[in-house]
Design goal:
Elements: E1 5-11, E2 17-22, H1 25-34, H2 40-44, E3 48-55, H3 58-70, H4 73-83, H5 92-95
Antiparallel strand pairs: 1-2, 1-3
């Protein structure tokens, strides 16, 4: 949807969490999966999209991202399990099991 902004949570099999915000969720998940950038996601192999929310304005998305980052781990896990109780990879529909090789 044009003009949409997303708050998302990436995870790995150990359920390490990464919270981010973007205006192009599919592209951003691809970047996480391809591990193009140094940092947390690359270090912890957080390549599964386990939660997402859509917003109409960047300000609302940024406010929500900041809110979630302040939450306790238990509250974040609860939030994910409300939308995604089996912790399936929500981006599987875009990429299947494909995870690009690291560069």
């Amino acid at each position: 949807m044009p003009g949409s902004y997303y708050v998302y949570i990436m995870s790995n099999v150990s359920r390490t969490l990464y919270i981010g915000m973007t205006n192009d969720l599919e592209r951003r998940v691809y970047e996480h999966r391809s591990k193009e950038q140094e940092g947390f996601v690359r270090r912890y192999n957080a390549t599964m999209l386990v939660f997402m929310e859509e917003f109409a304005s960047p300000g609302d998305a940024i406010a929500r991202e900041k809110q979630l980052k302040r939450w306790s781990r238990a509250k974040k896990l609860w939030l994910i399990e409300q939308q995604n109780p089996t912790w399936r990879d929500l981006a599987h529909q875009w990429f299947g099991d494909y995870v690009p090789a690291s560069q």
